[in-house]
Amino acid sequence: MPWSTRLRILKGLARGLTFIHECSPKRYVHGHLKPTSILLTSDMDPRIADFGLNRLACNPTTAEESSSFEPPLAHTESSRTPSQCSPYPLTPTNAKTNNASFYYEAPEMASRSSASSSKPSQKWDVYSYGMILLEIVTGKSPAAILNASEMDLGKWVQLSIDVSKPIGDIVDPFLAHDSGKELQMAAVMKIGLACVGGNPDKRPSMRNVGIALEKAGEE
Prior knowledge:
Layout: H1 3-23, E1 38-40, E2 46-48, H2 95-98, H3 122-138, H4 142-149, H5 153-162, H6 167-170, H7 182-195, H8 206-216
Helix pairs in contact: 1-3, 1-8, 3-7, 7-8
GO molecular function, one term: protein kinase activity
InterPro entries: Kinase-like_dom_sf (IPR011009), PRK1-6/SRF4-like (IPR046959), Prot_kinase_dom (IPR000719)
Organism: Linum tenue
């Protein structure tokens, strides 16, 4: 998949999450975003799925509470209907990916028993988006990196940057054909690292992520 297509998917996904967070009636939280939650049309426009029918019964009373919502298609560049979407997720589904959703979950989700973290937050989606972004750019799954290096994908990317690894050694080898786009790739990875920060209060909003991606695409 060329760099332009990957960037298109990331921008479309950011627009979709921005709509869910800011333009939907009660500012919903997806809460379980992962690669298998993303469907692609034949034009490679992303569609966000996997909200969960069990949440249809939810009746949130605050903007940050989780609920179920199917966003309209206005957030993408295509006018295709859901029936025209590819039935295939961004990453093939198998037993391992089904049981490994936690690789894309924000760390604070593991401590939901505390009062401050029990309510679903849009920053959970930002973290999940950041992990998906880094996976798309590096071509490495969070599970594989954790098993090989005992660190999450975000920390692996940050360490690679800190030790001044060439961009070509960090990104997906298939992107070697996209010469001249290294600055864009580096800028996009920095956006991803901001999204997966340990402090949820310091993670950017999805609107700001989308703006940053547009600027990165101009470099």
